[in-house]
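Input sequence (408 aa), recorded before submission:
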Amino acid sequence: MTSTTSELVPLPTRVRSGDARGVSVVRESSEWRRRAAARFALALVLVACGSRPPPGPVAVAGGAVATPAVRRHTKPPVSEIPRPPRDAGACVVPAQRGVSAALEVSAFVVPADTAGLHCCAYLRRSRASSVARTKDERIVLFQNGTGIYTTAPGDLDGLARAAGKNGNFALLSVDKPGVGSTVAGITTLDREAFDRHTLADLVACATNAIDVSRRQPHVSEDASVLAHGHSEGAQVWVRVLTAVSERGDRAWAARVEANVLSGLPLEPVTTGAERQLGVFLPFEIEAFRRAATAHDDDYLVLLGMPWRYLEHPMARESTTAVMERLATLRPGARFELFHGERDVNAPITNVNALVASQAKAKREGRAALELRLHAYPGADHQLDARLDTDLDTFVASLGPRRREPGAE
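Predicted structure, token format:
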């Protein structure tokens, strides 16, 4: 394959941090270009988990043109993403942007679930703590969706954006195994590591990143956690809570102050992928199935889900089943669910069914979660500015931190 360095068209419009990547590749064959464009679109369909559409088309090297929903900062083609430094024990911290601009930031490596894999985590000290030289009592974790992108530059969205504006919260983000950053804030990718990662690794990295954050000098040992998971990130956070509850760590679970989930997919990953293909790109279903069967990660990496990810038991269990299990472990646990009524990636009908079943269980005296659904008419999987407004209001309503029983 021949590849060239291509510069994607910059997008001036603010877009929500998400997962669709500006993947561009070059081949001589016009037929390959057509297929590449289709696969590029496939990646956008499956992993557009939190971005807002750009004002127009984005040029792709090789002549293909697509109109993706992209992150606020467009990333380079997968084939052109540089490899990280040889020192796998170091996480690079670039200049901070967005809500993290001017914040003190520390980076550390945390172990994943798969032997030999790790994630880079980035913790930003709150403005209030930095000025007063006090300890942070609250950590906000923002876990985004599927794709290849680094969170090192700190241009976070969702609850982290609202908390960053407030200035009283430490901000935590975690990269996926194999993903890192250059000093200029450009994503780096170690394909060998990334191709080995699974959903269980994302769960382990998020859990371990919170544990290490509480051991930082500027963070209280019993700091509470407010988490926002979007799309895949929502699936990860639900599994984090389930895992710590199943191991009986009541103190860890008690320090979770808020659970925010947006664009929550409730189907198993493999089921959701094929359903979305059937809606958006039915002619790619067979190619996807062949790639999954043949363990062709050169194809699957465009989706941000290598074959080990797709075959892992966590990816084959529905998030509905996980949340039903969590209800028996943490009855009464509260979740704020934000969802677009026109979300095709994660249909709201599934969310409505879960909310109804949990409400019924509560009425009948059975263990249930407290699910508060905030539905947005006309909004899709990307949501819109109404979410920003509601999250600002949510953060402002928190008031002083209250320590829950068992948190000590």
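Checked by second reader. The radius of gyration is 20 Å.
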